[in-house]
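2024-03-11 09:14:02 DEBUG pipeline.ingest accepted 1 chain
2024-03-11 09:14:02 DEBUG pipeline.ingest length=344
2024-03-11 09:14:03 DEBUG pipeline.predict start
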Amino acid sequence: TKLLQFSLIVFLLLYISLDLSLIGYAYIFTTLVGLLISIYIWKKLAPELSINYHFFNKEKLKEMTATGSWIMINQLGAMFFLYIDLILINIYFGASQTGEYSTVLQWSTVLRSLASVFVGVLGPMIMISYAKNQIDKVIKISTLSVKMMGLLMAIPIGIIAGLAGSLLSVWIGESFANLAPLMWLMILPLTINLAILPLFNVQVALNRVKVPGLFSLFIGIGNLLLSILFIKSLDIGIYSIALASAIMLIIKNFIFTPLYASHILGIEKIFFYKYTVPGFLISFIIFMLLLWIQTMLKLDSWFELIVTSVIIGLLSLVFIWLFALNKEEKTWIKEIVKKKKGKK
């Protein structure tokens, strides 16, 4: 559904209109499609399951509702944070620049969606370990997850940022290549911000979701205020909103989340930060390498972009396997792959 959402938004903005409301319609449509797909999978794989009010345990329902409410507040804060920028750009800069900004924003959305897939794989492992009261294992899985998430996301982040100018030129025209710095500002901070996403599972597993929920809401409001401040005080156009969003995202994800996870696990406050460094370095190396390559080669076709991306991606995977992972981490990856193959 994320791919459908991305494609539909791009199509509507490029070929129908730059009207901001079309993005909302695209979200509604793809959400309904996702719901129908989920119902189909449910009926196909588990037709014996049904929802019946009489089967509900009221005490458990109350407990789950309380937890779910704070998670919902967290998500509302995140949505407010992620999508307020389009509204502000439409108000202060007009529909044309809103279209430009949203086009670049889609690449950030794709990377976030890709990261959420990895989080979905790692989440159950943290939940199960905590349910068994294996706190040491929760910490171990969390640290490995943070490092692996950083390394895995470093490759697409570095490639997309490094090829930003060429990618925009081939995709929507050479006149949009000047938006490459905007893409850098949106995408490069994701290297460290997405790396810590597995730690959100720690909050849920330990049922410590109230403080993150309130903080997420605070960040959403703070992003709105900081964006308006930058718009009025900095003469950098739509970059002011991207800058404000990058700052607030770093505060929320890279500063607050690791510190809070360390606090509720009872470990050293800066414990998780060192596991974000390898991914950041890999992403920066890929980014700089691709910028250097493009000083010698002009990549002006999809074929050239894809071939370059595949080559850099494969070389990066080999480099990560040989130099960025220790023996224990390699064993852990092999075990996960074996389990996934076994389920098939």
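2024-03-11 09:14:41 DEBUG pipeline.report The chain has two domains: 1-55, 66-343.
2024-03-11 09:14:41 DEBUG pipeline.predict end
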